[in-house]
Amino acid sequence: MRYHDYHLKAYSVEEYGQTVTLHLSWDYEGASIEDSFIRFSDVSLYHFVHIQGAIITHLDEVELTDLLEEFADRLPEWDRWYGVRGWKGDCQRTAAHLQAEGYRAWSIVSAIGFYGFVIARSVGEVTP
Fold it and tell me: pTM higher than 0.70, yes or no?
């Protein structure tokens, strides 16, 4: 997947939150513009902060249980507000359920402020 040092141009959420697509752009002076679209399918939960000006440096698969534990204090509230697909009331039961259903977790990091994660069944580069 093409993402390292690409700008986050936009992202879209479709199918009532079940699909999240990152629109990334290699847009540097003197180089031809190249777009990359990375789609997460069957999304359980995503969270992005500070998206403006983001230049993506890492998109790494991480341990689902660790990610849920990192945000354990926010998950019940997010479930009340937005609905967390597969939420079972606590992190350990939720992680076990999601893993049994084939879900995985990805951390997305930027050189400039952006941080995000996605919990989904799959990820891949797609054409628009």
Answer: yes
